[in-house]
Amino acid sequence: MKNHNLTSHQRIAAFSALGNYMETASDSLHAIIEQAGYHNSWFTPANTKKALHAIAKTLVKPVLADWIQPYLPDIDPMSGKTVGLVLAGNIPLVGFHDILTALIAGFKVQIKLSSDDKYLIPHLLDKLIEFEPAFKQHISLVDRLQRFDMIIATGSNNTARYFEYYFKNVPHIIRKNRNSVAVIWGDETKAELSNIGYDLFDYYGLGCRNVSKLYFPKNYEISYFFEAIETFSTVINHHKYHNNYDYNKSIYLVNGDRHYDNGFLLLKEDQRLASPLAVAYYEHYNDIESLTAQLNERNEEIQCIVTNRKLTTIAPSFSLGKSQEPALDDYADGVNTLAFLLSNK
């Protein structure tokens, strides 16, 4: 019988080849990008290509090898266990890192796709199997998970409660809603500040790494912020984003809620972190020490923090414009997925 085990070197080589493919302009990749966009209008070709590029930058042999190096030799030989993956679909390929982590660690995967992202991931997995046919025995796409040894499931706060109950008897990672925040110091140049537009508007703000809450220093001039992000005004041209902008604007006007409006983003003062689409909440802070303590108290709600200076926060921080470019070890919710899997091998 043919041996379907793979060494870590073979797995790295296959994912590296896949990374190269993601950066190509092949007809097959172009066709699947178009198909994904027809199915889900949030997945514009530009946004899908952005997601592909962000992933491809990590699928490089030395980068992959450095990532798994601390876990060798646990990663070889392969495990006979199966990891069930319940994927989200809020932005293109958001579940890819979980697939990569499980397969690179030597597990089989049983994948329940999101109905919002049901074309891109199957296509990439087909290509991965082309590059390394032995992966075929380790990858299953299913409508219903069964006979799995551990679970990684991503969903809303409501579905997370269901997941916690349903998967309580197996090792699991259950991810809930999180949001990202930005800390503005007040001395950023307009060029530096403009980069926050990527954190706000990449993927139309639908990701957990998108900034939904801004912290400005006391007496900060909002018009300066609006001027800096003006180059992102074309976001309003997307019909669904525009509908959300119009809806939230009308609610604020009817209710008499004080807000700022630049024609494509609404700013509203609010203590909450999770803002509606096309809205960013904001607060003013008096001193950075108190703000840091506040952010640490709310760590369970925060995916990452965007800022141009170092903060002593629990949540990871990224410089302005970089929230959507996580490294392989920038794990969602701060839970080391690779260590979790190997601890249950």
Please explain how this structure is put together.
By secondary structure, this protein is of the alpha/beta class. The protein folds into two domains: 8-177, Aldehyde Dehydrogenase, Chain A, domain 1, CATH 3.40.605.10; 179-318, Aldehyde Dehydrogenase, Chain A, domain 2. The protein has 13 helices and twelve strands. The strands form two sheets. A seven-stranded mixed β-sheet has the order 8-9-10-7-6-11-12. The longest helix has 17 residues, at 239-255. The two termini are 24 Å apart. It comes from Olivibacter oleidegradans. InterPro entries: Ald_DH/histidinol_DH (IPR016161), CoA_reduct_LuxC (IPR008670).
Concise synopsis of the structure shown:
The protein is α/β, with parallel strands linked by helices and 345 residues long. Helices cover 38% and strands 16% of the residues.
Task: List key phrases describing it.
345 residues, alpha/beta, Aldehyde Dehydrogenase, Chain A, domain 1, Aldehyde Dehydrogenase, Chain A, domain 2, 2 domains, 7-stranded mixed beta sheet, 5-stranded parallel beta sheet, globular, Ald_DH/histidinol_DH, CoA_reduct_LuxC, NADP, Acyl-CoA reductase
Give the helix proportion (percent range). Answer: 25-40%
Please report the number of helical segments: 13
Class by SSE composition: alpha/beta
What is the name of the CATH class of the largest domain? Alpha Beta
CATH architecture of the largest domain: 3-Layer(aba) Sandwich
Main sheet summary: 7 strands, mixed
Strand order of the largest sheet: 8-9-10-7-6-11-12
Can you identify the CATH superfamily of the largest domain? Aldehyde Dehydrogenase, Chain A, domain 1
Give the end-to-end Cα distance, rounded to a whole number of Å.
24 Å
Count every beta strand, where a strand is a DSSP E run of 2 or more residues.
12
Query: The CATH topology of the largest domain is what?
Result: Aldehyde Dehydrogenase, Chain A, domain 1
Oligomer: single chain
What's the shape? globular
Beta-strand proportion: 15-25%
Number of domains: 2
Organism: Olivibacter oleidegradans
Keywords: NADP
Pfam family, one: LuxC
Protein name: Acyl-CoA reductase
